[in-house]
Specification:
Helix 10 links the parallel strand 13 and strand 14. 46% of the residues are buried. The protein has 564 residues and is an alpha/beta fold. Helix 5 packs antiparallel against helix 6 and helix 15 packs antiparallel against helix 17. The strands form five sheets. The chain has a five-stranded parallel β-sheet, sandwiched between helices. Strands 5-4-9-10 form a four-stranded antiparallel β-sheet. A three-stranded antiparallel β-sheet has the order 7-6-8, with no helix packed on it. It is built from 19 helices and 16 strands. 47% of the residues lie in helices and 13% in strands. The radius of gyration is 26 Å and the shape is elongated. It folds into three domains: 202 residues, Rossmann fold, CATH 3.40.50; 117 residues, Methionyl-trna Synthetase, domain 2; 146 residues, Isoleucyl-tRNA Synthetase, Domain 1 (Orthogonal Bundle), CATH 1.10.730.
Length: 564
């Protein structure tokens, strides 16, 4: 029986277009996993959506003189198209404005309140007298009370990762008018996380799949003492709070968004004839749920989401794995659209084909520490690994078979020990790549992919079949029979990372359908099979950083992607 695997990626805010760092940590990593599990033959559902609520949306809308709804509808449409261009294979990419999502969030919060985990109380909040509004999370900045970082937001400090309350900021100021706010009393609804500390701790300790960074961060957070977290906010844009007496208040964005993984699953099956199948992914204890996020999102997926699921009383599956990446920096700096630091996902596709970017981003994925994007690093990976190793091996192999054997996979004579060793080693590499993907070590899996083509290249260089053609054509044919099998294996392993390229090779091999199942990667292409004439897969990229920066600047002018 195939496993049921729910793959999810963090919901991007629709205040701006995502940059490459946003993409690799969530969307792209999740897509690689979803494609792999489909190749493995599992029952896979891949969901996410646009986070259209929250104060970042309101702040950006204010800057642009638009309503939040106008801004998010425009950006959701744009980002949905961009993700398709990046070949993100979502089964359902929805939004937090979906009626299914809104109803599910309100229903679930009422269940949590009924179960005794949500309470109401008056509280002190920051209020801007100039703008005559309360200042939740992103509407206020100041110094972090823990690490002293400047420009810490009212919900979280980017530097130390601590979750914050607006009133805990040192020297706070309103981000709209820059004035110092006052403290006023308001009423809010809270989820009492302290009541859930024990089951949350037990879940995290028992979860063997959680990476070390996610596990240690979460357990330390619990150890420091879980405090009640606000469920409601004094803002107009968001899901209306369903609690009695909460008129005019909306749901805090991170409570709203993390419940979207469940609602997106429900929504997907609502449009099929299997409306209740969503339960197989969320209530069947054999199902796996995989989450791909940036490290700043760890507590929302290991603490907040599990807390909500536990408090609902519905016995939902808790996250099976939360794969959290560190940050991708740009030339040593954090991405910033206002300061023109970074590369945005629409700009990237104007510069190079999508599979160049997909391969590079996963091959340099910041899995254990922050990584730094430079054009030199990009050029090296594309030119050395993708073009000279992977692309060269496949093109030289298929071109030789086409020119010297009329495009027919030659019949092997007796496979000698070194021939069989190549096939056995490649099989081991395919198995190794599978283990690495399942463990969340996607960067290592790309290295394994390149090593498969490197094995093929080394084998060809050692055997020199082009010389054997003059004296022992049959032996040369055996060598090309062997490397044809290596090409097939490399094609299957490359498919989660570079789906367009993999399909191009598959079509050249003239094998049936789309790229085959993972466990068929090393099943031989039969002798006598006819292949098509290959075309080069890649080309070398420019290595002059100044020229690439100039090209990026021209694209930004063309797209109008950055503010003046």
């Amino acid at each position: 029986m195939p496993d049921k695997v729910l793959v999810t990626s963090a919901w991007p805010y629709m205040n701006v277009t995502p940059h490459l760092g946003n993409l690799v940590g969530s969307v792209l990593s999740a897509d690689v996993a979803a494609r792999y599990y489909r190749l493995k033959g599992d029952d896979v559902l891949f969901v996410s959506g646009s986070d259209e609520h929250g104060t970042p949306i309101e702040v950006e809308a204010l800057k642009r003189g638009m309503t939040p709804k106008e801004l998010t509808e425009k950006n959701h449409a744009k980002v949905s198209i961009l993700f398709k261009q990046w070949n993100a294979s979502y089964d359902n990419y929805t939004s937090t404005e979906s009626s299914v999502h809104k109803n599910f969030v309100q229903k679930t919060l009422l269940e949590i309140q009924h179960n005794g985990y949500i309470f109401e109380q008056e509280t002190q909040m920051l209020y801007c007298e100039h703008d005559q509004r309360f200042l939740p999370d992103r509407f206020v900045e100041g110094k972090c009370p823990y690490c002293g970082a400047e420009k810490a937001r009212g919900d979280q400090c980017d530097l130390c990762g601590k979750l914050l309350e607006p009133t805990s900021l040192v020297e706070p100021y309103c981000i709209i008018c820059k004035n110092k706010p006052i403290v006023q009393t308001t009423k809010h609804w809270y989820i009492d996380l302290s009541k859930l500390a024990e089951p949350l701790s037990e879940y995290i300790k028992a979860n063997q799949q959680l990476p070390a960074n996610a596990k240690s961060f979460s357990l330390n957070w619990i150890k420091e003492g879980l405090k009640p977290r606000a469920v409601t906010r004094d803002v107009e844009w968001g899901i209306p709070a369903p609690f009695e007496g909460a008129e005019g208040k909306t749901i805090y964005v991170w409570i709203d968004a993390v419940l979207g993984y469940v609602s997106a699953t429900i929504e997907y099956y609502k449009h099929t004839d299997q409306t209740e199948k969503w339960r197989e992914f969320w209530l069947d204890k054999t199902a796996k749920t995989l989450y791909f996020v940036g490290k700043d999102n760890i507590p929302f997926h290991t603490i907040i989401l599990p807390a909500l699921l536990l408090a609902s009383g519905q016995d939902y599956n808790l996250p099976w794995n939360v794969s959290a990446t560190e940050f991708l920096q740009f030339k040593g700096q954090k991405a910033s659209k206002s300061q023109r630091i970074g590369i945005w996902i629409d700009e990237a596709l104007e510069m190079f084909p999508v599979d160049y970017w997909r391969f590079f981003l996963i091959a340099t994925r910041p899995e254990s520490k922050d990584t730094n994007f430079t054009w030199n690093a990009f050029a090296y990976k594309i030119n050395a690994d993708l073009n000279d190793t992977f692309g060269n091996f496949i093109h030289r192999t298929l071109s030789f078979i086409n020119s010297k054997f009329n495009g027919i996979i030659p019949s092997p004579t007796k496979l000698e020990t070194d021939d069989q060793t190549v096939l056995d080693t490649v099989k081991e590499k395919v198995e190794q790549a599978a283990k690495e993907i399942e463990a969340g070590w996607l960067q290592s899996a790309t290295n394994t992919l390149i090593s498969i083509s490197r094995i093929g290249n080394q084998y060809l260089n050692t055997k020199e079949p082009w010389n054997l053609m003059k004296t022992d054509r049959e032996k040369a044919g055996t060598i090309f029979y062997v490397v044809a099998q290596v090409v097939k294996a490399a094609t299957v392993v490359s498919s989660p990372f570079m789906p367009q390229t993999a399909e191009q090779i598959w079509q050249t091999l003239q094998l049936p359908g789309n790229v085959c199942k993972w466990n068929e990667a090393t099943i031989p292409i039969e002798a006598g099979h006819k292949i098509a004439k290959p075309n080069p897969l890649f080309h070398k990229v420019e290595t002059d950083e100044a020229k690439l920066d100039e090209q990026l600047a021209e694209i930004r002018t063309k797209l109008g992607t950055l503010p003046k």
